[in-house]
């Protein structure tokens, strides 16, 4: 990676051009990207299963960065961040807090997608003073319906993708309707827009560790989400196969200060399929007094 230490430098508003940076804390060197204006509360993006820096949709990141400072980062043992990937969501949450504090932030907004949304829920409970607002997308609560099946679904769709010479995300993130297929192809094309300074792909060892963490999350006893007092925006597609959409409704019902957005004819990657609408809704939510 093309490492730049620290947070300084020119303001960048395009994810395609955001330099790779590193920060060291707790014996770990975290890889991250930092873009957008330096005013207001920064938004930290928590990534999905197998996700590295290059797996964030640039339309979503750029949309946020037009108005807000955005930080994306690699979890421990993932991409260009060193260390051994934890096998629990709770350990991943500790690492996320370590990273956020290493950048000197005392208050952040968090956008957690899929596994990242699980990590975000834990951070909001363990370090509530650190979190101003939460956006939880394509995710579900501990013990949520069908979450323990993510490993089986991921394996099935990875094999299906191999046989059809496609990316597994085409099956895992999008519906098989004409709209879903088209949205998936457009999303996957956007992920390739950055051509220089790309991140390392996740290793098989780290991927398996993340699957174990998600499986454990799916088997956990439900948590008391009423303790999360921050405003929360919950969003998903109406036909999420990976983290069934019922979980988004469940989150919104159990979080005391939440609102729910469900996108039609969309799956796990609904926020990428409807990126314009999602960015507009998310920015309005974050900028609310």
From TrEMBL:
Alphabetical list of Gene3D superfamilies matching this protein: alpha/beta hydrolase (3.40.50.1820)
InterPro entries (UniProt xref): AB_hydrolase, AB_hydrolase_1, AB_hydrolase_fold
Any Pfam family hit: Abhydrolase_1
GO MF terms, alphabetically ordered: hydrolase activity
Keywords from the UniProt entry: Hydrolase
Keyword Lipid metabolism: no
Domain AB hydrolase-1: 42-272
Protein name, UniProt field: Alpha/beta hydrolase
UniProt organism field: Streptomyces pseudovenezuelae
């Amino acid at each position: 990676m093309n490492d730049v230490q620290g947070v300084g430098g020119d303001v960048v508003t395009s994810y395609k051009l955001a330099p790779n940076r590193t920060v060291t804390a707790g014996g770990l060197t975290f890889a991250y990207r930092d873009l957008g204006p330096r005013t207001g509360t920064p938004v930290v993006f928590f990534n999905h299963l197998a996700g590295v820096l290059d797996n964030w949709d640039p339309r979503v990141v750029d949309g946020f960065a037009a108005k807000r400072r955005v930080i994306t980062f690699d979890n421990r043992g993932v991409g260009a961040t060193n260390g051994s990937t934890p096998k629990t969501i709770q350990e991943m949450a500790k690492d996320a807090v370590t990273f956020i504090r290493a950048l000197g932030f005392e208050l952040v907004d968090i956008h957690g997608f899929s596994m990242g949304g699980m990590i975000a829920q834990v951070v909001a409970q363990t370090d509530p003073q650190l979190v101003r607002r939460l956006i939880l997308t394509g995710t579900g609560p501990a013990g949520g319906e069908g979450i323990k099946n993510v490993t089986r679904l991921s394996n099935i769709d990875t094999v299906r993708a191999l046989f059809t010479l496609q990316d597994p995300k085409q099956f895992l993130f999008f519906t098989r309707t004409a709209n879903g297929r088209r949205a998936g192809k457009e999303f996957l094309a956007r992920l390739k827009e950055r051509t220089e300074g790309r991140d390392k792909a996740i290793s098989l060892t780290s991927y398996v560790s993340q699957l174990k963490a998600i499986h454990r999350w799916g088997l956990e006893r439900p948590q008391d989400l009423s303790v999360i007092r921050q405003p929360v925006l919950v969003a998903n597609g109406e036909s999420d196969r990976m983290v069934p959409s019922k979980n988004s409704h469940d989150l919104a019902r159990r979080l005391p200060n939440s609102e729910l957005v469900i996108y039609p004819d969309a799956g796990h990657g609904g926020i990428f399929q409807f990126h314009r609408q999602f960015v507009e809704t998310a920015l309005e939510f974050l900028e609310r007094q």
